[in-house]
Sequence to fold (667 residues):
Amino acid sequence: MFKIAKENLSALFQLIAEKQELYLPVKAAGQTNFAAWDKDAQVDLDTLKTVKSAKDAFFPQSENLYNVTKKEKKMHIEPGALKEQDFVVFGMRACDVKGVEVLDRVFLADPIDSFYAARREHGTIVAMACHEPEETCFCKVFGIDAAQPASDVAAWMIGEDLYWKALTEKGEALTEAVKELLTDADEAPVEEEKEAVHAIVEKLPYMNLSLEGWNGDALKEKFDSPVWEELYKPCLACGTCTFVCPTCQCYDIKDYTAGESVFRYRCWDSCMYSDFTMMAHGNNRNSQMQRFRQRFMHKLVYYPANNDGMYSCVGCGRCVEKCPSALNIVKVVKAFQDQGGEK
Amino acid sequence: MQEIINRAKELLADGTVARVLGWKAGDLPYNPEPAYFENAEALSDFVYNGFCGANLSKYMIEASKLEGKTLVFLKPCDTYSFNQLIKEHRVDREKAYIIGVGCKGKLDIEKIKKAGIKGIESIEGAEISDAAETLKIQTIYGEKEMAYADAMLERCHVCKGKEHQVYDELIGESKETKDAELFAEVERIEAMSPEEKFAFFQNELSKCIRCNACRNACPACNCRKCVFDSTKFDSAQKANVDTFEEKMFHIIRAFHVAGRCTDCGECSRVCPQGIPLHLFNRKFIKDIDELYGEYQAGEDTESKAPLTNFTFDDAEPSIVGKRG
Fold:
């Protein structure tokens, strides 16, 4: 266990950034999101949740897969570059780290997504324990410990110091690289902090949310439930929930034609959108109820069915905070509890 | 609130309306959701408080297609949107039974959280009947207070007034909440140099995540199929690239709703990134006022809108050009 004084953090960031890219929560135009560090960046480690998760660091919202250009009479195909440089994501939370595990099971399963795999290989995650969890948080429901992120390096902000503990080989390597700024520390304050955070977590309103009955075996019962017909109605069919979500992983692949060249890119898609998974025959979900149902069935039924019971929600609560119509996954789970799936 | 619920029950019982469109209590003190109620029993979940900012006018487009009348609760500013939708033949007046509800300004949970208030357990003072000027907020981290006015949505600070523009009956009193000049923010931007303006909007719009919440919440954005959802449209409209958000999407949307936007403020309320999208629309409103005479979209259902009407006194394009 090491520590570094809060006032030395900018030196730490500078040292990391000398050798690798560094992404961390930066406040710009009033909002905090993950962004590349530079000397002028307004680093914000106090905001508990960035608006978007750190998902972009591994799975960017838009990226070019390949470019096709015409030179004289020949077509040239140039594949998009895979990440080759090491980078650090600093300041993720325990829920977001679990979110990366959810993505891993999708993108690192056969056939492996080479763009994602390259970023995972080169990325080191330094995650911060939550100091003051908020009422929208429910990570504990998914077995996540807000006070102990399962990242390469776990960090705790306690008073005027940041405590630092490497948990993996990558974490050890990063620790070695910045060792000149770290000093040995006693674990006791961290243990105390963990206990304090656990006590707060117990008081959060969503702590007792039960996921009983949400699993692969419940597919037909949940899918056919009349509850969806009521639940979806306030949904405006925007993509806010999917785009702030650390685990939503659906994307679309499109071509952008620029005169004599074509850029094939992929970008996040949202199951809330009317053209989601549209095929030549049309759309296989032609009502908003079906699209709404898809999102929650995917998180709580389909994904666990394919991934040893693991849910693809991590309880970060961003959808709870950001949905324009105040809908969210918690309300969905509760609606099924209240009505037992029957109406 | 009980008066509203009782009246809704009466209208359901006597068959005047087939359903009620209002707000349902959320599971946190600040997250009620728009909801339909089809019987008296369901109305036990009905709520109307300071957090019912959602403008229900847009939901009436779909509700107009249902059997029978829908009882809808509209705040004074929401009624402008409803009128505008009547004018555009997107809602059926005959399918709506409108109860205009009183409003003392709606609250913005983002402002409360930005003030550093977190771990919220309960909020006192947000009830519509409450005359409290201060919100008492109980949190896991102790009791906090915030002035009601400081927690209000931007749109309430430039409130259009207490009058409902269309209704069948009214319930409840409204309060004057206007304490800022409508065009003050626009004027501040107009005073900037072109470079400053560009930097300002670039800074704001680069936060855009292409979620379409602004478009989907906007009552004026009511095309059956948005051009940006077209699969035949050869732009990178789905990609999150700076060129698109900063230079196209929001500008095109603002142009498309110009002269029809009532300045209801939903775009800015719903933006997950806190982009002040209303500024574009308000600039158009200011220009229309100056070039064609004062005009408020949604004030009535009959008048011809300045941008869809020709008069010999119309501003000449060259004059418009000169004025920028």
Q: What stands out?
A: Residues 2-105+158-171 of chain B form one domain. Chain B has two domains: 2-105+158-171, 184-323. Residues 112 and 186 of chain B are 25 Å apart (CA to CA). Chain B touches chain A through 48 residues (CB under 8 Å).
